[in-house]
Write a structure and sequence with these properties.
Layout: H1 3-20, H2 35-43, H3 47-59, H4 64-74, H5 84-88, H6 98-118, H7 121-141, H8 196-214, H9 223-244, H10 251-266, E1 275-280, E2 291-302, E3 311-327, E4 332-347, E5 350-363, E6 373-389
C-alpha cells in the first residue's frame, strides 16, 4: 500500500470512528436542536464557539443551515437508541416523532437550494473545510470522554465513630492518637492562559495593514476581500483556541466582521457608497447620459420630454435603493431589468420579485412600431426597479 493509500485509509478510519462515537444531543443546556451543545460536550470545547461557527457558516453562503439540520437528523438525542433519521427507517427508538423528522427532512430542500444557488465554488470549499474541521476534532480530541458523562466516583460511607484521618476504620487501635497536623501545602501555580486572542488580533491587524498597502498596486484588495481575509484569521484563531483554551473574546470581533462581510457581498460593494438621490429629466437626446449610477438611494429618470423620433441608449444602476424610469407613451422601448440579489421588478407590465430576478423584452407603446427608440438597462443589487408609461 502506497503512502497516499495509507493516508486515505487513515482519514476513512477517523471518520468511521467519528460516526461510531457520534456526539449526543443533550436535553438540557441547548438553544434549538442541541447539535452545537452536543458537539461541544463530545469534544470538551466551549459551546459558544461551536454556535458561533454555525452562525459563521450560515453567513458563508448559507452552508450552516443544511449542516445544522443534518446534525439534528443524524445525531441521537440523549436517552435515545438511534438518531431521528435512523428511527424513521425502523433501526431503533428515538424520542423525535416521525412527523418532526419528516418536517426536518423537508426543510433540507430549501436550505440546500439556497446554499448551492448562492455559492458555487465557495460553498464546496466551505463544506470541505467543515469536514476537515470535524476530522481534526475527532483526530485530536476523539479520545476524550464526553463532558456530560464525566462524574465523580461514588464515595464510600465512613465508619461510625472513625476519626477524619481514618474514615474507613482500617486502624481502630490508633483512634485515640491525636489528629495529625495538616502539612502546609505550597500555593498552586496559576495556570498561564494561552495568548491565542492577543496573537490572533495582532495577526489580523498585520493582515489588514498589509492588504491596505498592497491595495495601492493590486486591485484585488478591495474592502470585501480584506474583510474576508480578516475573518479567515479570526476563525483560525477561534479554532486553535477551541483546542488549547482561550481566544473566546475573538467572538466579539468575528460577529461584526461577519455581518459587515455579508452585507458588503450582498450589495456588491466596491468602494465608498454614493448615498443620496438622482432626479434627471432630459429634454433632448444629447442630454441623456450613458449611465446614471448611485450606491444607496433612489434614481428617477424621466424621458417623457424627449423628441418623438431618434434613438437613445442609457443604463440606470444602484447597489441598494429604488430605480424609476418613465418613458413616453408612444416610444419603442427595449428593456432589461434585474435585481441581482433580491428585489421587485415592474417593467412595462412584466413583473417579478424574489432573489436574483430579471425581466426583459420590447414594448412598442400605444401606436405600435415607429417613433422614438429607447434601449434601457435598469439594474440593482437590492431594491425595486420600475419602468412606467404614464
Amino acid at each position: 500500500m502506497s503512502g497516499t493509500e495509507k493516508a486515505m485509509q487513515g482519514v476513512a478510519d477517523t471518520l468511521r470512528e467519528f460516526w461510531a462515537h457520534r456526539p449526543v444531543r443533550p436535553r438540557a443546556g441547548r438553544k434549538l436542536g442541541g447539535v452545537a451543545t452536543g458537539i461541544a460536550l463530545r469534544y470538551q470545547i466551549d459551546p459558544v464557539i461551536v454556535r458561533i461557527a454555525f452562525v459563521a457558516l450560515a453567513l458563508s453562503g448559507g452552508v450552516g443551515l443544511p449542516m445544522y439540520l443534518a446534525g439534528w437528523l443524524l445525531l441521537p438525542e440523549e436517552g435515545d437508541e438511534v438518531s431521528p433519521l435512523e428511527s424513521l427507517v425502523n433501526k431503533g427508538r428515538s424520542s423525535t416523532s416521525q412527523g418532526q423528522t419528516v418536517l426536518l427532512g423537508l426543510l433540507m430542500f430549501p436550505a440546500l437550494a439556497f446554499t448551492f444557488g448562492s455559492g458555487g465554488f465557495q460553498v464546496v470549499v466551505t463544506i470541505a473545510a467543515s469536514v476537515a474541521c470535524i476530522y481534526l476534532l475527532q483526530k485530536n480530541r476523539g479520545h476524550l470522554a464526553p463532558a456530560a458523562t464525566l462524574a465523580e466516583p461514588p464515595l464510600t460511607p465512613p465508619v461510625p465513630g472513625a476519626p477524619a484521618w481514618d474514615p474507613l476504620g482500617a486502624a481502630p487501635f490508633a483512634w485515640d492518637l491525636p489528629e495529625p497536623a495538616p502539612r502546609p501545602q505550597p500555593p498552586a501555580p496559576r495556570p498561564r492562559k494561552p495568548r491565542v486572542g492577543a496573537v490572533t488580533l495582532g495577526v489580523t491587524l498585520l493582515v489588514v495593514a498589509g492588504s491596505a498597502i498592497a491595495g495601492a498596486w493590486v486591485p484585488w484588495f478591495t474592502v470585501p476581500h480584506v474583510i474576508g481575509l480578516a475573518l479567515a484569521v479570526v476563525a483560525a484563531g477561534l479554532l486553535v483556541g477551541s483546542f488549547v483554551g482561550g481566544g473566546r473574546a475573538l467572538i466579539w470581533l468575528l460577529v461584526p466582521l461577519s455581518v459587515a462581510g455579508f452585507g458588503l457581498t450582498t450589495v456588491g460593494f466596491d468602494g465608498p457608497p454614493n448615498v443620496g438621490s438622482v432626479d434627471a429629466k432630459p429634454v433632448s437626446l444629447s442630454d441623456v447620459k450613458d449611465r446614471y449610477e448611485l450606491g444607496v438611494g433612489s434614481v428617477t429618470l424621466d424621458l417623457r420630454e424627449l423628441p418623438d423620433s431618434g434613438s437613445v441608449k442609457t443604463a440606470v444602476e444602484s447597489d441598494l435603493g429604488e430605480l424609476i424610469v418613465r418613458v413616453p407613451k408612444t416610444a419603442d422601448v427595449t428593456f432589461d431589468c434585474e435585481a441581482s440579489s433580491i428585489g421587485e421588478l415592474d417593467c412595462l407590465g412584466r413583473r417579478a420579485d424574489g432573489s436574483s430576478v430579471r425581466v426583459d423584452g420590447t414594448d412598442l407603446g400605444e401606436d405600435g412600431a415607429g417613433g422614438l427608440k429607447i434601449e434601457l438597462d435598469a439594474r440593482t443589487s437590492v431594491g425595486n426597479v420600475m419602468v412606467l408609461r404614464d
